[in-house]
Design a protein that fits this description.
The chain has about 200 residues and is an alpha+beta fold. It has one domain: Cyclophilin-like (Cyclophilin, Beta Barrel). The chain has an eight-stranded antiparallel β-sheet. The chain starts with a helix and ends with a strand.
C-alpha cells in the first residue's frame, strides 16, 4: 500500500513540476535593415539563421556603409508588378567585397516568393555586393536538382517587411529604351535610377 501511495504522489507531482519548469528563452529577433531612398524607406528582415552566409554578407555591406549611394540600376518588368529590381555596388572598385559561397534554396528552405531578397550571380560562388528584390512568386529562381546543368538557383536570404510601396515605385518608374549596362540589359535600365541614400540596421 505504501508503494502504491508513493506512486500516486509522484504522478500528482509531475504536473506541478511541469508548470514550474523555466520557459525556454525566446529566439533572438532577426536583424532588420532600413534602405532609405529619395522614394521612401524599405525595411528588410535578414534571415541569418537559415541563410547565414548570404545574410551576413548583406549585413557586411550595411555595416561598412558600402551601399550608401548605391542605385537601383536594373528593373526587369515581365508583366504588371511581376519581375524584379536590382541594386548594389555593381562590382565597383573599392566597394565590392570578395564573393561568397552559394547557399541554394534546397539548403536554406527560403523560397523566392513575393518581396524576397536574393543574390544575383554568374557561376555558383560568384555572388558579392548586388541584390535583387522580387515582385511576385518566382520558383524558377529556386534550386531544382531535377534540372540539367546549373540547377542551383539563386540564394534567397531576406524579405521586405515594410515599404513595399516604395519597391513598387522603383519598379513602376520608366526604363530607358536605349541605355545599357556595359552593353547588356537594354530596356532594363531605369531612366532616372533611384539611389539608396543610407542603409542602416534598425531596431525591430
Amino acid at each position: 500500500m505504501r508503494w502504491i501511495a508513493a506512486c500516486l504522489l509522484s504522478l500528482v507531482a509531475l504536473p506541478v513540476l511541469a508548470q514550474t519548469a523555466p520557459a525556454p528563452s525566446p529566439a533572438a529577433p532577426l536583424p532588420r535593415v532600413a534602405l532609405t531612398t529619395a522614394a521612401g524607406t524599405i525595411v528588410v528582415e535578414v534571415d541569418t539563421v537559415h541563410a547565414p552566409i548570404s545574410g551576413n554578407n548583406f549585413l557586411r555591406y550595411i555595416d561598412q556603409k558600402r551601399l550608401d549611394g548605391a542605385p537601383f540600376y536594373r528593373v526587369v518588368k515581365v508583366q504588371d508588378h511581376f519581375g524584379f529590381v536590382q541594386f548594389g555596388v555593381n562590382n565597383a572598385r573599392g566597394k565590392v567585397l570578395p564573393p561568397i559561397k552559394h547557399e541554394p534554396t534546397t539548403l536554406t528552405g527560403i523560397k523566392h516568393t513575393d518581396f524576397t531578397l536574393s543574390t544575383p550571380r554568374r557561376a555558383p560562388g560568384t555572388a558579392a555586393g548586388d541584390f535583387t528584390i522580387l515582385l511576385g512568386d518566382q520558383p524558377s529562381f529556386d534550386a531544382d536538382p531535377t534540372k540539367p546543368g546549373d540547377n542551383l538557383g539563386y540564394a534567397a536570404f531576406a524579405h521586405v517587411v515594410d515599404g513595399k510601396d516604395v519597391v513598387l515605385k522603383v519598379f513602376d518608374a520608366p526604363n530607358s529604351p536605349t541605355a545599357t549596362l556595359g552593353g547588356y540589359f537594354k530596356g532594363e535600365i531605369p531612366a532616372a535610377p533611384v539611389k539608396i541614400l543610407t542603409a542602416r540596421r534598425v531596431a525591430n
